[in-house]
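During the second half of the funding period, the structural biology subgroup turned its attention to how the target accommodates small molecules. The most pressing case was FE2/S2 (inorganic) cluster, which had performed well in the primary screen but for which no bound structure existed. We therefore specified the complex as follows and requested a full 3D prediction, including the ligand pose.
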Amino acid sequence: MPRPYEEALAAFWHPVAFSRELNERPLAFRLLGVDGVVWRTASGVAATQRYCAHRGADLCDGEPVGEGLRCAFHGWTYGVDGGCVRVPSQLSAPISQKARLAAYRCAERYGLIWVCLSATPSAPLPEWPELEDGALATVALPLLDWDVSAGRMMEIVLDVAHLSWVHRGTFGNPEQQEVPAYDVERHASGLRTRIVYPALGPSIGGAPPRVDKTTLTYDVTLPFSVRLEFKPTLFYTHTVYAVAQPLSEEKMRCFYFCSYHPKIRNFGEMFVKSELAILEQDRRIAEGQRPKAHPLGFDGEVHVKADRLPIEYRRAMAALRLGQAPDDPRME
Ligand code: FES
Ligand code: FE
């Protein structure tokens, strides 16, 4: 039997904010139906349940103090482990064991704040070392709040056959409707595929757009992260990172950013403008799909060879829900 959605995904790291959004004020987040709060401590970042154990005040109105977070209502202060360490109204009395918040694992990496709701994460954060050596520039899109499940969003990003249909008018090439056979590599933390796609470049000065054979490398880290490298022949390589935060089984928010060579002038502005147009094409299709929750099985829909990558992703997510390794051969 597959484990319930929230339970199976609680043991993974999920993004809840861009680092730049988290300043001196605590920040609310929603993850897998849980309301939480993150804040900056003297030594890093911390996350707990959002509402105070005393009278349910919103801890987003509170204030970080040293390692802890102080509630705005009566000044109770909680440590990063969720335990209350100070009750100002009766300083000399022992603090009740019940004065405690649920505390979550919290980390900061790749310009994102990540939370794991379980005490023991079952997988590490994605490995994207190129984002940490300082050689690349990055640019982020505004948050993508789509009314769709994180799994459906992942499947549309991984869908090879939709490029020539959904992305007409941006980079999709309507002349290339057939999908040549491609392989998908499975590994312990996800999937990897490489395809070559004859993308259409932007039309310059009214001239017809040029076909640019672009190598697309998809690297999936389960459950909801994908790194997608675009290697065109006429332009520079850039890499897109899409990381979804599952707010619930049917709704997600996506953190979407891109790395590129810092010498490409105006790349950031160009990227944001063109990518928002491309993603709007995806959003309209994805939000219309039913069921909204990511199907775990294969019975309700029809699958063809061209869907290989989304099929492999669905298979891996089904394994995850069953508590099996994504490259488990029993999932054939
Ligand atoms: Fe938070 Fe009273 S409600 S200290
Ligand atoms: Fe798309």
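Two results from this model are relevant to the next phase. The domain at 129-331 is CATH 3.90.380.10 (Naphthalene 1,2-dioxygenase Alpha Subunit; Chain A, domain 1). The mean pLDDT is 95.
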